[in-house]
Specification:
This is Cyclase family protein. Pfam families: Cyclase (PF04199). InterPro entries: KFase/CYL (IPR007325), KFase_sf (IPR037175). One of its GO terms (molecular function) is arylformamidase activity. The structure is a single chain. The chain has 256 residues and is an alpha/beta fold. It folds into two domains: 195 residues, Putative cyclase (Glucose Oxidase, domain 1), CATH 3.50.30.50; 43 residues, no CATH class. Helices cover 20% and strands 22% of the residues. The chain is elongated. The termini are close together.
Length: 256
């Protein structure tokens, strides 16, 4: 069994619309921090110099959104109300949703915009694969090659509502993408809305989650490393953040 990492990193050095702040205490700074915390919180005294090399433990503090790096969107991310009842948060979803057979659809040759159900059907016929209930479907756009750059947020393709509903009709509960969003880029969506005045073009892949309960995995990476479009097992367990609309995750493919 070979493991393929399909996750993008949380990297404070890369471009993000919501910048990441990563503060690091070195082991020496950690010793002084521990000494001060022990004194203030517990009334205990231990001088940093008492520790080997006057070092304790390093400490990382990050400030970021739950939509930074590879993450899973919960139904509550899509809105406060849904046709099926109260949308669940990321800590309320069953773990079984996030592990199972996976397949990847190749959209690397597609232009910026959104792909429809007809494209999904044609791609599944091309690769000769029949999606089964519980399967996790991943969209390979090639956008992850631009991660950390401004273009990552504006040059990719997504899915429209018809594509999402088609996959849900097949029994899919989790859809992933290596792009910033499962929807088309902001600029494409706003331009379509201005041209048509049709509100259905506004984030249709996300808002489909108000009609039917499902999760998205966004900002995957390395999907081109999968040797076959199907026949692998996929796992992407979200961090259990109480009451959150999303959770960071480490996505991995298990290949025989």
């Amino acid at each position: 069994m070979r493991l393929i990492d399909l996750s993008s990193p949380v990297d404070a050095a890369g471009f993000e619309p919501n910048p990441v702040r990563h503060e690091i205490l070195s082991p020496a700074e950690g010793a002084r921090h521990m000494s001060e915390e022990m004194r203030a919180g517990f009334g205990l005294e231990l001088a940093p110099e008492s520790l080997p090399d006057a070092e304790f433990l390093s400490l990382d503090t990050l400030t970021l959104t739950t939509h930074t790096g590879t993450h899973v969107d919960a139904p509550s991310h899509y809105g406060s109300r849904a046709a099926y009842g109260k949308p669940r948060n990321i800590d309320e979803l069953p773990l079984e949703w996030f592990t199972g057979p996976g397949c990847v659809l190749d959209a690397t040759a597609e232009p910026v915009g959104a792909l429809d159900a007809g494209w999904v059907r044609r791609e599944l016929r091309r690769i000769g694969h029949e999606v089964r209930p519980g399967e996790i479907v991943l969209l390979h756009t090639g956008a992850s090659a631009r991660d950390g750059q401004p273009e990552y947020f504006s040059e990719f393709t997504g899915l429209d509502a018809s594509a999402v509903h088609h996959l849900l009709d097949l029994g899919v509960r989790v859809i992933g993408t290596d792009a910033f969003s499962l929807d088309a880029p902001f600029s494409h969506i706003i331009r379509n809305y201005r041209d048509t005045g049709d509100s259905s073009v506004l984030w249709p892949a996300h808002f489909a989650g108000r009609e039917r309960e499902y999760c998205q995995i966004e900002r995957l990476a390395n999907l081109g490393a999968l040797p076959e479009p199907a026949g692998f097992r996929f796992c992407c367990f979200p961090v259990k953040i109480k009451g959150a609309g999303a959770g960071w995750a480490r996505a991995v493919a298990f290949v025989d």
